[in-house]
Every structure is written in C-alpha cells, then in structure tokens.
Amino acid sequence: MFDPQNPPELDATDWLNAPEPRPLASLKGRVVVLTAFQTHCPGSLKHGLPQAERMARGFASDEVVVIGLNTAFEEPDQQTSDKLSTFLAEQGLSFPVAKDTVTGGDMPATMTAYEIQGTPTTLIFDRQGRLRRHYLGRVDDVRLAAEVMAFCMEAPNAPVEQSMAVERRLAAALVDPDAHAHNHAHDGNCCGGKDHSHDHAHDLAHDHHVHGPDCKH
C-alpha cells in the first residue's frame, strides 16, 4: 500500500537539464515540487509546465526544488530522451526532468508507484520527504505558492503536531471548491491513464490527494 509518509524513490532511466540525477533522498531538507507531464498533453503544455517554470524561478533553489517527471504512458516511443531534450529547450524549461522508466507494462514505473492517474500531476514533498500534496490537473498559482511557502516555514525536523497545525491554517485560509471533486466535463486539458478516475483519493491523514479543474481524459 502506498505510504505518503515514506514515498518511493523516483525510478528514472535518464535525467535532463541536470548534471547528475536528483533522487528525492538527496533533496531532504528542502521542499520539492514535482510536475508529472507528457510532451503532447494539452494540460501539461498550458498549465503544468509553465507553472513549474514559474515556481522554479520564483523560489530560491536552496529552499525549494522543482523537478519534472516525463511519464510517457501514451506514445512512449515518441518521447525519447533526445526528443524530450529538444522539447525542453523549445519550451524554455530550465528545471531538472526525470524520464520515467517504461517497463513494458501498461504504465511507467514511477507513475505506477505513486498511483498517478494522468497528466499534469503535481506532487509536493515537505522538508522531511513526506508527500503532502497530490494534485491531478490544473492547480491555482496562489494555492500552490501558499502551500509551498507554508511547508518552507516548517522546521526540517518538525513534529507531526506542527505539520497538523500548518494544515489547519492552510485549510482555514485557502478556498478550494474543487477539493476531492472533479465535476467538469472532459474538456481536453489533461490526459488520463488506464482506469483513470477523477474521484480516487488516498487516505493520507494530514496529507491531501486532490484534483484540480483542468483535466481531460
């Protein structure tokens, strides 16, 4: 069973825009924002990737690390490392990108391990490496920045009580009418994987697994 308190390491066959791999274990002590994407996914192109670049440029890298995860569950043969490198340059994306391992099964390895159901997906890890957010589809800039900033203010060894207090303050301050729901028609802004469901959720205790309003099956 997936454990957000001890999430798995990224399973990548290649890293781009980085001189060396950036495993999650090496990033503890910083907040990590991960954007899972496909190069042809409308929601990734319109929302996920531009937002990730804004986050990378807007936060100091010694406090917040932004990484991309190219999880090619549709047309993986068309998303080779060479083509991905060209894509990143054309899109002006500067943050490190991991290429998810294609195992020959239905879904790439990291996508399966994290129960990612489509692209774009945004994951936020706190300083202790715990998965605190899992969003499918578009995430509002204000919400994402507020949550990242709140996790930055937690101590690297913050006890669970402090994290719970931060979650209560975020819940009180941020309006999220679409949390744990996805009621719009499929409108072409996100790409869903096998058995794609907009209603699934993990019981993450004080963690959240929610869906944004721009996801196309």
Fold topology:
Blueprint: E1 12-16, E2 31-37, H1 42-58, E3 64-70, H2 81-91, E4 97-100, H3 109-113, E5 118-119, E6 121-125, E7 131-136, H4 141-153, H5 160-173, E8 191-192, E9 208-211
Parallel strand pairs: 2-3, 3-4, 7-9
Antiparallel strand pairs: 1-4, 2-6, 5-8, 6-7
What does this structure look like?
By secondary structure, this protein is an alpha/beta fold. It has a single domain (12-211), classed as Glutaredoxin (3-Layer(aba) Sandwich), CATH 3.40.30.10. 28% of the residues lie in helices and 19% in strands. The strands form 2 sheets. It has a 7-stranded mixed β-sheet with strand order 1-4-3-2-6-7-9. Strand 3, helix 2 and strand 4 (97-100) form a beta-alpha-beta unit. The longest helix has 17 residues, at 42-58.
